[in-house]
Structures are given as structure tokens and as C-alpha cells.
Prior knowledge:
- This protein has 154 residues and is of the alpha+beta class.
- It has a single domain, classed as 2-Layer Sandwich (Alpha-Beta Plaits), CATH 3.30.70.
- It has helices spanning 14-18, 22-31, 46-52, 62-69, 84-92, 105-109, 124-134, 148-153; strands at residues 5-12, 35-42, 74-82, 118-120.
- A 4-stranded antiparallel sheet has the order 2-3-1-4.
- The chain is globular.
- The mean pLDDT is 92.
Amino acid sequence: MAAASERTLILFKPDAVQRRLCGRILQRFEEKGLTIVGMKLMKISRELAEQHYAAHKGKGFYAGLVSFMTSAPVVAIVLEGPYAIDTCRKLMGATFGFKAEPGTIRGDFGISNQYNLVHGSDSKEAAEREVALFFQRGELLENKTADAALHLAE
């Protein structure tokens, strides 16, 4: 039986954009068979960052995280595919670079605990909420790729 397609939000954080790693990171998601259905370079407002990270409000790292995420441009992406959420989280690796396995995005490119390059939704509910925060309805496109039939057969 074919796996149901999911959508997930991925953010290339300011450190990924500033270090010019966006292409290399995106390549990993695409090579795994995920499809881009939305993508934009943007500067996150304080209000949006506070909404996005609301679950962490009151934690010691919250203020610094909001400050960091609003400090420079990010790339917001919606990826789609079977098991997209779990697949992206495995590709990203553990949150802290020193714990991330080699071969993962954070394991290969991470240089500190504070700057971990990417954010990815951690559940279907979070993905729905986060995609709606960063993208308007008309900004997401159907994108049927040449290999889409391969996913149906799995």
C-alpha cells in the first residue's frame, strides 16, 4: 500500500543562509525524493517568530532564539512526499550538532549548539500550523514530478 503524502515546513535558519548552504541542504531533501511545493526567502518578523516558537515561551533560550531567527533572512520551504515529516527529521539529525550523526545535515554542517541550520516540523499537527504561519493558500503549488509514479508503487 502506498504511503500517504505529507507536507512539512522546513526553515533554513539565518546561519544556513549566511553560510551559503541552502543549495547543498536543499539537495539532500530533493535527492531523498521530497518535492518542493512552496519556497521563499524572507525576513521573519518578531511577531511571526514569537507565534512560531510559542511552545518555548518562558524557557531560557526563547528570547535568544527569537532574536536569532529575526536577525537575518531565512528560507521557508514546504516539502511534500510520503513520510515527509519523519524523513526530513532524519535527514536533519539531532538538534545539537555535536549529537548529530555524520551524514545528517546538522552532523555534517553544524558548527555550534546555538546555530543548528534548519528547523523542521515535528508532527502532522505542527506541520499544518507552521505551514499556515509561513505560507498563504495561493503560495503552495501542486508540483507533480517526473518520478511521482515511483512513490505510488511503494
